[in-house]
Amino acid sequence: MAGRRVRTPRGLSAFAVVGAAALAVVLTMAYGPIGATAAPGGAPDLASMVRAVSDPHSPLYRHFETPAQVAQYMPTGLWGSARSVPGAGAHLMHPQRIVATAAGDAKTCSDYFGQFASDTHPALPGGTTAKGQGWPPVPTPLAICGYTPDQLRSAYDTDGDSGSGVTVAILGAYNSPTMPADAERYATDHGDAGFTDGQYTQYLMPGAWTLQDQCGVDSWAAEQTLDVEAVHALAPRASIRYVGADSCQDPDMLAALARIVGNRMADVVTASWGSPLHTAEGDEPASVIATYERLFQIAALEGITVNFAAGDCGANLPDSGCGKGLGSVRAQTTFPASDPWVTAVGGTSLAIGADGDSLWQAAWGTRAWELNGTTWKPLGWVFGGGGGASEDFAQPWYQVHQVPDALAQTLLDGQPAPSARRVVPDISLDGDPFTGMLIGQTRSDAGGPVQYGESEVGGTSLAAPLLAGLEADMAARADVWGPVREGLGFLNPALYLLAGSSYLTDVTGVVDAAGQISPPISGISTVFAAFGDDGPLTATPGYDAATGLGTPGEDFTRALDRYTER
To answer: DSSP strand E in 397-507: where?
Structure first.
């Protein structure tokens, strides 16, 4: 069968066709013994089955199963009774979203990177750049107002891709009362088409909302708005299904995720929330972690791609402001992004020039100073993309040849790991709120009237749905997938095979600008935000714990062409 791919009909399982015993032989030849978790009679365990359909080198690559076929693996007690999930002490999940400023005008911010600059600000005493300039250097670019959809499409080289025929599910909590009207207005105001009939659908979980005060309903509404508008920006013809949980607590989030997976509601799932596993409230129960992971594996077996934001607090250091806010008790990664069966999406600072091209990118990490009269007051390290070695998950097979041993075998507290660990992120996109996306939402600012307005928003909450839009573009390419679309499935094994290619742009930490100055806007003081300081997470050539494999490069949406025919 050399040169041709063997396809299994959508309604017929590849595992049923091959047979349990024969499949076990195939998996063993390819990957070694399938382990003690194999089912009786030689049938492979779920993890081995998922690996077989996810690995481009496997003869069963992309032979996905239907919802009816995966029903036997679904956890019980989730649908319709979310709070019955075992494990006391389940955590509250947090949106990974940061608002930089309200949208300004040409006098206070730039439409593209470097359009305007400040040349009158004072320098920090004794501070110099690598080129010997004063710190901040003169001139220093003024912060952008927020990138628009056409700028992001240009920077990420979508080249007319639209995501047509692909469905993206956004997994959040609660629901914004002004969606999809806000997304419709935002799109048309920026020259894009709004939603066609049925293109945007909301699915809210049965039962009353709970824990609104603890979770922050307004914050989740803003998160929903960001996710919808970001996906629509990069995949304007993809269908979007928003699934809102009854709260931000694990059991409700799991119930919403189970609804998506159990019914295969989408080809791509994006989620911009998470939490450290070890907090002042206690450790996340092992049963909850196991339920998440099982749902991720079932999603992959169905051909669903799942992205999670890697977090906005770097290594979640407990002595940092954001680490304290999350209740982190030690340096650690953010879950669920740290789970090896999802794609963890980190953040970059993205400079888009006047022609729409990406000028450069840096690892997103912000150290800032506030101008107080003629003196810069240090604000310290503020936030940055999440990453590092997970103490909770072992190294997955797809990272073995790309992640340096020094990263995989060293925990974020600096101690040696007992064995090689899962390292995040996998890939990174624009997440810096000072180089973020302009988002439109109806809301009340500082107790003022409720009205529609636009603001610049970032965080890995932006990076994750941007990747989902690119994945929808990738899956929609008819000349790649043929007449029957089966989905991309779990993307990581293919992503790591792209390392070093032009499809990925390595983020090395070398940038052409020291930072940006954000002038006073809506009562916010002048701030100098330096680029590329993500605390203990450092961008280096090759895979690193600040940006992973790098960021989507030229023709990224065509990157999997080589794996579609066997």
So the answer is: 421-424, 427-430, 437-444, 450-458, 504-505
155 and 52 share one domain = no
Q: What order do you get walking across the sheet with 375-384 strand by strand?
A: 375-384, 365-372, 527-530, 515-518
Report d(CA 200, CA 169) in Å as an integer.
10
Same domain? For 234 and 358 the reply is yes
CB 261 within 8 Å of CB 187 = no
Is residue 75 in some structural domain?
Answer: no
Q: Do 125 and 52 fall into the same domain?
A: no
Counted residue by residue, the chain has a size of 566
- Domain hosting residue 509, numbered range: 100-557
pTM, full prediction: 0.90
Please tell me which residue, 41 or 519, carries the higher pLDDT value. Answer: 519
Q: How far apart are CA 306 and CA 548, in angstroms?
A: 17
Q: How confident is the model at residue 2 (pLDDT cuts 50, 70, 90)?
A: very low
Q: Give dist(CA 362, CA 512) in Å, integer.
A: 9
Give the H or E element holding residue 345: strand 343-352
Q: Are residues 362 and 472 in the same domain?
A: yes
pLDDT tens digit string along 402-438?
999 999 999 999 999 999 999 999 999 999 999 999 9
Q: Given the DSSP bridges, would you call strands 268-271 and 305-309 parallel, antiparallel or unpaired? A: parallel
Residues 414 and 547 in one domain: yes
Q: What one-character DSSP code corresponds to residue 7?
A: -
CB contact at 8 A, 557 and 162: no
Are 104 and 57 in the same domain? no
Give the pLDDT confidence score for residue 65 in this predicted structure. Answer: 93
For residue 556, give the amino acid letter: F
Same domain as 105, residue 33: no
Which tokens hold the place of 413?
């507290």
Q: Are residues 35 and 176 in the same domain?
A: no
Q: CA 388: distance to chain centroid?
A: 15
CATH number assigned to the domain comprising residue 153:
3.40.50.200
> Given 3-state DSSP classes, what are the helix, strand and coil percentages for the chain, each rounded to the nearest 5?
25, 25, 45
In a domain, 417, yes or no: yes
> Would 354 be classed as within a structural domain?
yes
User: What is the number of alpha carbons within 13 Å of residue 180 lying toward its C-beta?
Assistant: 23
Reading phi first (left if > 0) and then psi (alpha if -120 to 50, else beta), residue 307 is in beta
**Among 144, 132, 237, 228, which residue's Cα sits nearest to residue 179?**
228
Q: How many CA atoms lie within 13 A of 102 on its CB side?
A: 12
Q: How far apart are CA 445 and CA 222, in angstroms?
A: 12
Question: For 26-53, what is the mean pLDDT?
Answer: 57
Q: What are phi and psi of 178, to 5 degrees?
A: -115, 20
Q: Does residue 302 surpass a pLDDT of 60?
A: yes
Terminal-to-terminal C-alpha distance of the chain: 8
Instruction: Determine, yes or no, domain membership for 150.
Output: yes
